[in-house]
Amino acid sequence: MAQDSLSPEAAESRYGGYTRFEIELEFVQSLANPFYLNHLASQKLLNDPAFVAYLAYLQYWSRPPYIKYLNYPGPTLKHLELLQEERFRQDIISPELAQALAAEGVKASVEWHKDD
Q1: Side-chain half-sphere exposure of 86, counting CA atoms within 13 A
Q2: What is d(CA 86, CA 53) in angstroms, rounded to the nearest whole number?
Q3: Which domains can be identified in the chain, with CATH numbers?
Q4: Is 16 helix (H, G, I), strand (E, B) or coil?
Q5: CA 26 to CA 31: how far, in whole Å?
Q6: pLDDT at position 15, please?
Q7: Which one of 24, 39, 101, 114 has the fewest CB atoms closer than 10 angstroms to its CB?
């Protein structure tokens, strides 16, 4: 008898032993890295309507209870929001923009730690 595609065994093999939640969490957290955003743009993924739709779908991470699982919610959600804008998806191909975003993140981190 064929295995039900919704069974835990089928899901595990389909996602390489990880849950969809774990895979999406890892991916959405990678969006905090502006150099990764630049890489996505250089691979033309940010021009792909299906990928752009996936980025829109991932906005659920900005709401409870999901937001509590993000290690770096500030930059992760900021970049996820920016990726909803076509202009940003075009502009992030610029290494200078990626560098500026990285510098902004470092500055914000330093300022946040000053308050400790």
Answers
A1: 3
A2: 12
A3: 29-114 (1.10.10)
A4: coil
A5: 9
A6: 82
A7: 114
Tell me how crowded residue 89 is: count the other CB atoms within 10 A of its CB. 20
Among residues 65, 55, 64, which one has the least CA distance to residue 28?
55
C-beta of residue 72 within 8 angstroms of C-beta of residue 32: yes
pTM metric for this prediction: 0.82
Inform me whether the pLDDT recorded for 29 exceeds 60.
yes
- For 28, residues 6+ apart whose C-beta sits below 8 A from its C-beta are 58, 61, 70, 76, 80
* Residue position matching structure tokens 């835990």: 8
The total number of residues shown for the chain amounts to 116
82 within 8 A of 88, measured Cβ to Cβ:
yes
Residue corresponding to tokens 């991916």: 27
